[in-house]
Design a protein that fits this description.
Strands 3-2-6-7-8-9 form a six-stranded antiparallel sheet, with no helix packed on it. The chain has a five-stranded mixed sheet with strand order 4-5-1-11-10, with no helix packed on it. The chain is about 10% helix and about 40% strand. The radius of gyration is 24 Å and the shape is globular. By secondary structure, the protein is mostly beta strands. It has one helix and eleven strands.
């Protein structure tokens, strides 16, 4: 019985020591909700900014964003105007496919569709934005600035 007990203790110790590696990185995923955000700006066909210039065609303070609910009612969606970096930060629903609308001014509204997927390479397995379409035209993504550019 003593030999068995010693063998059991030795086995447990070895398993414990071998299973712990010092070089393994510990990842702490946030317990709070982290929004899926799209950073968006509008330019014309020649690349001129239409929102964040001295006399914009679409003043950022007049822009509205909303989604349409199942009962055809509209619900505003949250976004932030980031003037110094020249983009609108839009908080999106964490879904694989979503739709919302950007009203640049009365009578000028774009239907925006987006696709997202769970990023399997991320240790926290959160959604990552894959593409954005403006009235079925694919937006341009700039990885360095992380801004989606839409053309008018």
């Amino acid at each position: 019985m003593k030999k068995f007990l010693k063998l059991l203790i030795l086995s447990i110790t070895l398993v414990t020591l071998v299973s712990c590696k010092d070089d393994e990185e510990i990842i702490a995923c946030p317990d709070i909700y982290v929004a899926l955000v799209a950073n968006i700006n509008y330019v014309d066909g020649s690349g001129k900014d239409l929102v964040f210039v001295d006399n914009p065609i679409y003043p950022p303070e007049n822009i509205k964003m909303y989604k349409v609910l199942a009962n055809d009612q509209t619900m505003p969606i949250s976004f932030t105007i980031i003037k110094n970096e020249k983009f609108l930060a839009v908080n999106l629903d964490k879904v694989e496919n979503g739709t919302f609308y950007i009203e640049l001014k009365p009578g000028v509204t774009d239907k925006i569709t987006y696709a997202a997927k769970i990023d399997e390479s991320s240790p926290c397995k959160d959604y990552k934005l894959i593409d954005i379409k403006q009235n079925d035209a694919l937006g341009q993504y700039e990885g360095k600035t992380q801004i989606w550019t839409l053309k008018k």
